[in-house]
Amino acid sequence: MSADLESAQHPETLRRVAIEPLSRVEGHGKVTLLLDENDHIRQVRLHIVEFRGFEKFIQGRPYWEAPVMVQRLCGICPVSHHLAASKAMDQIVGASQLTPTAEKLRRLMHHGQMLQSHALHFFHLSSPDLLFGFDSDVAKRNIVGVIEAYPEVAKQGVLLRKFGQEVIRLTAGKRVHGTGSVPGGVNKNLSREERDFLLKDIYQIIAWSRDAVQLARRLFEQNRELYNAFGRFEAHGLSLVRADGAMDLYHGGLRARDKGGETLFDHVNYDHYWERILEEVKPWSYMKFPYLRELGPEQGWYRVGPLTRVGLCDFIPTPFADQERRSFLAYDAGRAAGATLGTHWARMIEMLHSAEAIKELLHDNDLSGDALVVSGARQERGVGVIEAPRGTLIHHYRVDEDDVIVRANLIVSTTHNNQAMNEAIRQVARQYLDGRKLTEGLLNHIEVAIRAFDPCLSCATHALGKMPLVVELLDAEGATVDSLIRSVGCGER
Amino acid sequence: MTVPAEIKKLRVATTSLAGCFGCHMSFLDIDERLLELLHYIEFDRTPLTDIKHCGPCDIGLVEGGICNAENVHVLREFRKNCKMLVAIGACAVTGGLPAQRNHLDLADCLQEVYVTETSLGKGGIPNDPELPLPLDRVYPIQEVVKVDYFVPGCPPSADAIWKFLTDLLAGRTPRLGHGLISYD
Ligand code: SF4
Question: Residues A274, A312: one domain?
């Protein structure tokens, strides 16, 4: 078995097994395995197989369209793109300080998003693996099976997600692809009636979120050794943190720590993110491979998302979630906090944080204020960064004097985790698949590792950075007549 | 709806082609009505199950247009297996936002690669045979297969999807009245 499993020596001599499409994840991807005659695994790759080109076709559009357009990257976390683009456009319109109403409304929207996305991922997509077992009956291993076997758990998952979606509806105008956030602020406040509508359920939502943390913890405890070791790898971490070191999902400075816990940089203004992060292209995936510039492409790859955020922040600024954070970090002498499957637990702690934060915000009278939008001196470049459910999300635009977008660069959360996901599945292949006859259940182990990252392969497929464009000519029957491969680079900044 | 004791469930497959999953999210936005719906339907291939290939089904719901060769294969498989095929959402119906790339001039793009310094540490051309070939344009699904119903919207609301499905389940011709059809 080669050390890193990224590239086998003689792929043409090896047997190929593909997991395609990846299921119970969002978006389009596949995993290929290459095995030798003794079933030893020689190569494992996660491929992102689609590209769309949002970065390119947003060019030429007026800047105020960006927050509404780009969220169509992703229907699971549209609010993240809506807000990251809005934050970039705040800079374009010179809104250096939003009104309290605008800022708090956006935060509320974002926490609604965190809540619904984390609930969806844990209950609808991942819980079947965790509740039934990684190689359990494929016919039952889905949300319908969970509804039958654990109706109360499933119902809470459905209703947690519903509440998050309702927060989004009332702040953004509709549940999927709303329009509430605009350059320089928001276009509506939250009325007292809307606030009361949400307030009546929030205590139940917090209680269920606390239960969800306990459920994630119990699942970990029941299989402690398996969960600790499964797909485990050491990685550097990156996330935004607030000036005082608190977890802040909406705004902050960049913090990076290396594998050993040493701080690489802290409270870095993200306006010049490219001084810290570069990206690499590999020929077998449309998703790029980012890395920390100071460490280089080989050593500099890192992990983002719930596991990283919960570990990297100094504290979580809501009481129940912070208590859970401390007990998570202490569990098993800190081992769970570095485990790939510990991500589910961390994700539920974040969901609890968002539920608590929503409660605090709903009690804030600023939400019904009337000052919604500000502007100042017009700028040419805008960078907006946010901690989306899956991790750090970077939007970067340049706008000319005619208000037209001339450049766009997006680094979505899942892209940051590209190498980390590949590491996790290679580790799983070594641990569980190597030298064995591959069954459906064994192959699902690979997907279990990928699901821990909650990848949004949909988001990750859109960037038309430096990518090939393959033109396929079809005849009337749809058969391929010809195809043409070209390198296309549509630039950064 | 009251649940009859013995009913033959309709088998439903769903897929996302060149879509954003927003239509699937809107489907899940029927919230607790999902629990009720499951008395009447069962899932074949969908992003929610681990069934990788569509088998014989009563209804196929397709989100997203066609942007690469793999989309074409999946769509044909759906058409072959589903008695009724439904285009859900703007992307499936018209190509949607991803079809914005249809006006891009490839030559311009090619030009850019040679004149633009990118922030890439190491560039290169993804050209692995594992990557399906992108099509020159993004197509609505009816340009490739016959489609029985179109539900517009980006995404269609949960109520629209609910009305559509419950009409079908009740044996009625689906009708979306005022307030349920949107073209955002
Ligand atoms: S129609 Fe809208 S919500 Fe549906 S897949 Fe397309 S962009 Fe997403």
Answer: yes
